[in-house]
Amino acid sequence: MDSIAWYNHEWLPAAQATLPLDDVGVLQGAVLVERLRTVRGEPLDVEQHLSRMQFGCELLEIHPPRGRDWIGLLGEVVRECASRNRAVFGAQDFSLVVIVTPGRIGESPRLPTMIVHAAPIRWPQLKSFYRVGQPLIVANTRNVPQECWLPQLKTRSRLHYYLADSEAAELAQPWGGAVLLDLAGNLTETSMANLLVVEGKRIVSPPLNSILHGVSLTRTLRLAVEMEYDVALEQLSSERAQAADEILLCGSTGCLWPAASLEDRIFDDPVRRPVFQHLSRAWCDDISLDYVQQAS
């Protein structure tokens, strides 16, 4: 059974939901995106993801059609997309992707291009993350500075991520990832996750003005505070991260998982990492799903 997508107010087979060649998203890479996952078939954190999408649309002056607000319009579509695609994925949860571009060149008035579609979750990858952790390198490729665009924008303009992940792929480690530095040489994030460093009872994130404001990061930091960890936002060097007790990664599809290594530093097996175990259990309780067991 083929998945169903929503394309500019129409439901159609996902294979037909494509960007025209004269779309600004194709010609200039101006594409805003949100990826969220389902929990037992229901989309998780819809309003939080779409609030970030609305922020991006306002910044790029992309206006919703028909006098609607982005959260109201796309929220309805995301939930219906989940409902229409449950039978495609059976008992498995899946991802939902929201794409908005400024529209097609030459149109007057220019109307946004909008796509919402479902996508499978890569369960073998997540199983590996939870069981042994994700190996990481520090990429030579730098993250985009905020002088170019705000890191709070979630965009498909990801050439820097592609180059960084290509560096990681050269190490031939399954599902390895690359941490990007800012121009000052501080750690920021990977192409798929925010990064946290554990130092005893302290959990440290890079400053929010240098990273994407991840929905899963927000949840993780909230849970950490509730569990009486000392949470800090500080510049992180590669040397400091390699000396940490644990490194944690969080993203909308995988929720929370540990790093297996960073460069030459090898971290303990995940079952012996107390903070990951502590926070992952809190995550499971918070979303009412044992997401680690689900991937097994």
TrEMBL record:
Source superkingdom: Bacteria
UniProt xrefs under InterPro entries: Aminotrans_IV, Aminotransferase-like, BCAT-like_C, BCAT-like_N, Class-IV_PLP-Dep_Aminotrnsfr
Enzyme Commission numbers on file: 2.6.1.42
GO molecular function term, any single one: branched-chain-amino-acid transaminase activity
Xref: Pfam families: Aminotran_4
EC primary class: transferase
UniProt keyword Transferase present: yes
SUPFAM superfamilies: D-aminoacid aminotransferase-like PLP-dependent enzymes
Keywords, comma-separated and alphabetical: Aminotransferase, Transferase
Annotated GO biological process: carboxylic acid biosynthetic process
Family: Belongs to the class-IV pyridoxal-phosphate-dependent aminotransferase family.
Entry protein name: Branched-chain-amino-acid aminotransferase
The species this protein was found in: Aureliella helgolandensis
UniProt lineage: Bacteria, Pseudomonadati, Planctomycetota, Planctomycetia, Pirellulales
Gene name as annotated: ilvE_1
